[in-house]
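For reproducibility, we list the full input for the beta-D-glucopyranose complex.
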Amino acid sequence: MKKSKLTLLAAALPLLLNSAYAENKEVEVLHWWTSGGEAKALNVLKEDLESQGISWKDMPVAGGGGSDAMTVLRSRVQAGNPATAVQMLGFDIQDWAAEGALANLNDLAKAENWDAVIPAALQSFSKYEGNWVAAPVNVHSTNWVWASKKVMDEVGITEVPKNWDEFVTALDKVKAAGKTALAHGGQPWQDATIFDGVVLTTGGPEFYQKAMIDLDKEALTSDTMKTAFDRMRQLRGYVDDNFSGRDWNLASAMVIKEEAAFQIMGDWAKGEFIAAEKVPGEDFLCFRVPGTEGMVTFNSDQFAMFKVGEDSAAAQAAMAKSVESPVFQSAFNVVKGSAPARTDVPNDAFDDCGKKAMADLAAASEAGTLLGSMAHGHAAPAGIKNALYDVVTNHFNSDMSSDDAVKQLAEAIQGAM
Ligand code: BGC
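The corresponding predicted structure, in tokenized form, follows.
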């Protein structure tokens, strides 16, 4: 017996409907988490999503600070093919939101009560015109020193340096013993990361606010800023001959392998120590850039959620929901070296450096000494940040005077405004 056309259509209808609305259970994630510690942390997220039946399409673009990732992102978006979620810092989120490229996460944020548990300092970057457009993953901060306990002991540094002069004394001791005092990678974003801490210790939080966030010309050209450049010049004298272009995690490895004493780096460095099974307090020490105790220059990795087709919206929302879950916030940030992006996550699972990161963050937020990191996109938009990178790097790699550096800095920033 022949089936009527109608019967055939009725049989095909569910299939047709299904394919029209077939859910895409994959998230494509663009990020720059490519070091050993970073990859371990990212695995926590991959596994979490896989357990929910969501598969992961990896789009890694190496390069700390994310500048290279942002270049790749631009061409992806121009080609009409953004990733589902993109690791992003501070002002970049606002720029993409202003272009209308980001999804609206308000329903999820409301259901999950994000307004109440995510600190205001992060919300100001995760929301655009009052709408949630990104899911904050963590809070990092840049004004940290990572130190080899063994090297410190060997050269007779018995106390953690508490101010700049003590730090210089300690660096001198290491240098005199023939070891590398400062492990550093000469890349613009790493030079700028050091600069965050140097400006903060030199001028204090109010000065940092004026110079790096308000971009006040007087502060930028002040004697205090000149001293900051003098100190950058001082630090240049403590790096090894091969520092140029070195990746940050290889600089961390120098401290881990006890070849160097100190690294000034954000607390993602801790992820490398942990991945190498080193123990804080025993193998390595973490302390604030001397003279910046009680102050925090922060950055927050967020997943900016791009406008994707209706078929991918559920997987995207599931990812955002997972990222904010308290259990994930603890599991991920313990490995990553960061503090959680919510205020209600217990600190039990964190090591001493992680506990300090969380306590410092809360205290700085209370005291008004929580400041956006210039080097990591939380003080000013990308154009200004990149202008600062250029001057700081040119100064670090030449014999430019501090007088010239502050002049160039003010001009470059003015030009980028
Ligand atoms: C990010 C960190 C990352 C670091 C080095 C920073 O900009 O916030 O998550 O680990 O760059 O790649």
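The chain has a mean pLDDT of 95. Residues 142-298+374-416 form a domain with the D-Maltodextrin-Binding Protein; domain 2 fold (CATH 3.40.190.10). Both points were considered when choosing residues for closer inspection.
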